[in-house]
């Protein structure tokens, strides 16, 4: 069983919700990425998203864009990130997911990317700009290497949700608002109605992300979904850290607060 599926099964048995933090691989550097992943698991993270830095991340706000720029400046290329995941796998079996833009996969080679992801220890891949015409092929390759291709749906998806979640595996990444990632004080989407529509078309766990930036917000939305995704709030802890130790301490504390919520 894929680690993601196993994790959601175990969480359901314990009546817990999944906390899914996002960080950009290589921000501030790849060695620190390993330590951040281990600290987040220790603090209660259930699944971890690793963003592959990209020069034009269309779905991301300024905070994650800046983290991508820092990672790229420090040499975080795909081949080095794959090696970093192998090093992480020497120390933990927490489910790991790549968030990667389609052009990066296309340039690297679709099957090569997915095979190497699987070989390194990745369990799922989120592609926010995956062309609909490429979905069938990439889902097929994902099944071949036991990689869950995780779909994104948005409040504007509506009539397309059925097709978006068709043949998907792992969980559904439910974008909470229209627009890009980033911390927000509130979310105007009718989340209860939105989750209900998605549930009409799939039994996969639903994880809500984009804009959830505090334990209070996580607590407010947890009843509508099986998981909460937090990215920009964590990236800010990394960005503002004065040292590696400071970063690890601040991230660990924040993750613990989110998991408790």
UniProtKB/TrEMBL annotation:
One of its GO terms (molecular function) is tryptophan synthase activity. The active site is at 49 (proton acceptor), 60 (proton acceptor). InterPro entries: Aldolase_TIM, RibuloseP-bd_barrel, Trp_synthase_alpha_AS, Trp_synthase_suA. It catalyses: (1S,2R)-1-C-(indol-3-yl)glycerol 3-phosphate + L-serine = D-glyceraldehyde 3-phosphate + L-tryptophan + H2O. One of its GO terms (cellular component) is cytosol. Its EC number is 4.2.1.20. Pathway: Amino-acid biosynthesis; L-tryptophan biosynthesis; L-tryptophan from chorismate: step 5/5. Keywords: Amino-acid biosynthesis, Aromatic amino acid biosynthesis, Lyase, Tryptophan biosynthesis. Belongs to the TrpA family. HAMAP family: Trp_synth_alpha (MF_00131). The alpha subunit is responsible for the aldol cleavage of indoleglycerol phosphate to indole and glyceraldehyde 3-phosphate. Tetramer of two alpha and two beta chains. This is Tryptophan synthase alpha chain. It comes from Clostridium muellerianum. The gene is trpA.
């Amino acid at each position: 069983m894929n680690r993601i599926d196993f994790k959601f099964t175990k969480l359901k048995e314990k009546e817990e919700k999944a906390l899914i933090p996002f960080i950009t691989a290589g921000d501030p550097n790849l060695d620190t990425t390993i330590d951040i992943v281990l600290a987040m698991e220790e603090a209660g993270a259930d699944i971890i998203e690793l963003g592959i830095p990209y020069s034009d991340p269309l779905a991301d706000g300024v905070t994650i864009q800046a983290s991508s720029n820092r990672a790229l400046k420090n040499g975080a290329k795909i081949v080095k990130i794959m090696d970093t995941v192998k090093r992480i796998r020497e120390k933990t079996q927490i489910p790991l997911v790549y968030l990667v833009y389609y052009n990066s996969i296309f340039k690297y080679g679709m099957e090569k990317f997915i095979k190497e992801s699987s070989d390194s220890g990745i369990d799922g891949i989120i592609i926010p700009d995956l062309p609909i015409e490429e979905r069938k092929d990439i889902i097929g390759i994902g099944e071949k290497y036991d990689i869950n291709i995780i779909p994104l749906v948005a409040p504007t998806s509506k009539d397309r949700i059925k097709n978006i979640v068709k043949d998907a595996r792992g969980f559904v990444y439910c974008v909470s608002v229209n627009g890009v990632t980033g911390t927000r004080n509130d979310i105007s989407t009718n989340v209860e109605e939105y989750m209900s529509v998605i549930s009409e078309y799939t039994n996969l766990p639903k994880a809500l992300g984009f804009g959830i930036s505090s334990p209070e917000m996580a607590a407010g939305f947890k009843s509508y979904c099986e998981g909460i995704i937090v990215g920009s709030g964590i990236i800010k802890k990394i960005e503002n850290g004065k040292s590696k130790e400071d970063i690890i301490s601040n991230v660990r504390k924040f993750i613990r607060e989110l998991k408790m919520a």
